[in-house]
Amino acid sequence: xxxxxxxxxxxxxxxxxxxxxxxxxxxxxxxxxxxxxxxxxxxxxxxxxxxxxxxxxxxxxxxxxxxxxxxxxxxxxxxxxxxxxxxxxxxxxxxxxxxxxxxxxxxxxxxxxxxxxxxxxxxxxxxxxxxxxxxxxxxxxxxxxxxxxxxxxxxxxxxxxxxxxxxxxxxxxxxxxxxxxxxxxxxxxxxxxxxxxxxxxxxxxxxxxxxxxxxxxxxxxxxxxxxxxxxxxxxxxxxxxxxxxxxxxxxxxxxxxxxxxxxxxxxxxxxxxxxxxxxxxxxxxxxxxxxxxxxxxxxxxxxxxxxxxxxxxxxxxxxxxxxxxxxxxxxxxxxxxxxxxxxxxxxxxxxxxxxxxxxxxxxxxxxxxxxxxxxxxxxxxxxxxxxxxxxxxxxxxxxxxxxxxxxxxxxxxxxxxxxxxxxxxxxxxxxxxxxxxxxxxxxxxxxxxxxx
Length: 452
Ligand code: NAD
Hints:
Its EC number is 1.2.1.-. By secondary structure, the protein is of the alpha/beta class.
């Protein structure tokens, strides 16, 4: 086991920091500290927990620029995107703080007395985060868990622990109790596994690949541990002939190139009605070319590098020699894990048309009619998100109901808002994050009968 993680700037390949890893013994000590802090935290009045979480949000807000810069360094995100991500953490902390004050139980009159229902915190929650959106995804788990009265142990991805460590410092500065929100950097198979297997951890929130998610689910099942899984996607972007084609083509690049395609909601399968296929491709090409890749610190940059050389190799494997490339963007040469925006003419059954690529690559598949579009959209083991573009409200409703996915958008590519539930059907996950129910996902329901 390495003792340190080298943190590499993916745009320059320079080492920007080294971070000590957390051993299984240190995980055990962290769980004990968290459990002690959680008891005190849960005993606070909800309004006091809310006040401290708002102060945490204000501290994040005061350091928005430096957090964004850190995300740029460790993940290569363009500065504007990284700033939005830090703002998302702040907003979510405020939203969760409001939820802490609104978390109520119920009273149910029954024969012979009254049933009173409470929402009790779970205890210590482990959040295992990926590298693609290091800050927001950590906060989607941590903020509601804290608001509901739990302690949080966050295991960031190997490549991106810096923003997580900084958030933990801001939490302390804001007055959250020592030990309540700890960040444990390290390898998944060592530090992550020790957390998942620790009997003192009541729930695991995991975001990452479906393969790792299944492994973690099996480990949790062995201890009847609570679990939320946010896994991969292969989301469709369905463009009907009656759509505003200009708008659909203008929005399409962002839907699979934002975050260099390293987005579980990436609309990496573009399904276009055959009658408008050629016109749509004509419109798409300049829009993809305009999605500039380059220095993440440059305000004109829309797309940064991939996270690592290994991720670039993986993406390359989906575009072998002779692949049917329809559109190709430009990417910087030299240092950095760059890969150009790429649109492939899809052939159903091709690896690129069915597997999650997690890079700036989309496939275009033509369809004939509404039924064909729905069939193609559902021809995947995943079910996270998707978009449909049409001017027909009836069709929008029919197709939205027929596509098996947790988060769909009509005439838009919006996927995630902290006010609304987010999560997947099928192999894309179990449970929901965000939205009004996020807090209750971090509670046990307790019913008390009072004999009257
Ligand atoms: P991963 O699923 O292996 O890792 C995600 C997190 O889980 C990391 O923090 C990792 O350290 C941890 N982890 C790994 N093995 C673990 C274990 N046995 N026990 C506990 N924790 C463990 O993802 P990856 O290797 O970083 O990326 C591989 C692929 O996964 C990507 O190419 C992409 O397709 C997919 N992915 C999807 C998402 C998403 O949001 N859906 C995010 C990241 C990666």
